[in-house]
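Support request, please re-run this one:
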Amino acid sequence: MKTKLRLYRGLLRVQWVIEAAAIFLILALCKLMGTDRASRVGGWIASRLGPRISVSRVARRQIDAAYPGITEAGREAIVRGMWDNFGRYFTEYAHLSTLWPQGLGDTPPPAGSRVEVSPEVVQRFLEIRDDGKPAIIFTGHIGNWEVLGAGAAHYRLRMAAMFRAPNNPIAEKVLLKIRGSAMGKLIPAGFQAALLAARELEAGGHLGMLVDQHFSRGVSVPFFGRDVKTSATLAKLARRFKCPVYGAWAERLDGCHFRIHMTEALDFSKEYEMTDARAAETAITARVTEIIETWVRQRPDQWNWLHRRWR
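Re-run finished. Output below.
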């Protein structure tokens, strides 16, 4: 038994090394190709191979459930767009630190930059940065969500991003090196994640969270007219610190160009004062999930339909 276990662990390490080496080589090649070409090639390959693999069945089922009566052509357009976005997202990792123009100071990116940000959104970033208060900024797996963290770093907005680490610990180091240099502090998901996030907010910091995936121990809230289980971590932290909550996402415009959308601070003052904690957490999570749904409805081709949201 011990011999089999050692063999299994040895083979698993070999698999990890091969996967990590492949990721490293692909990203190194993407770096050499340049930003636009890497993004274009990544999208082209993914949009042609992705729809053919079995996992795309999950996407098709969920699209059919979210859009009753959708035509086959409409569904396949969303699937191809999703894979195109995902392929671009991956190859753009190699250029994450350079997507935002350098030396912005406190001004919006100039016309023609890869990232469009309105003066109102920039002002919101700066107010969050300078008010000395903790805040939570949430997003979803839509567009290129890594662009938001890189933007916060460019505007010197102290923010810790919560993320789910890959199962491959060697690949995790490769990706974390890229993320960390472009985005700053990272909090891996796990049993200590909530504690580390609370410490960050307690110190007056800011927290970035992805909030659009299934969580079996979460609260039930509506999403496209059907209940989904969603983590209440954001709601718990927001209630504990009574801090402002914002929603933001990076919409892909054309190729490797983006527009940043950001809500005003959401008013949860009523929920912060409720004595029924579960009801308050459910109300906050429902509002956040509703906002995610509006984004997905705007650009369904840019959301990750591969994750089983309805179970």
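The radius of gyration is 20 Å. The chain has a mean pLDDT of 89.
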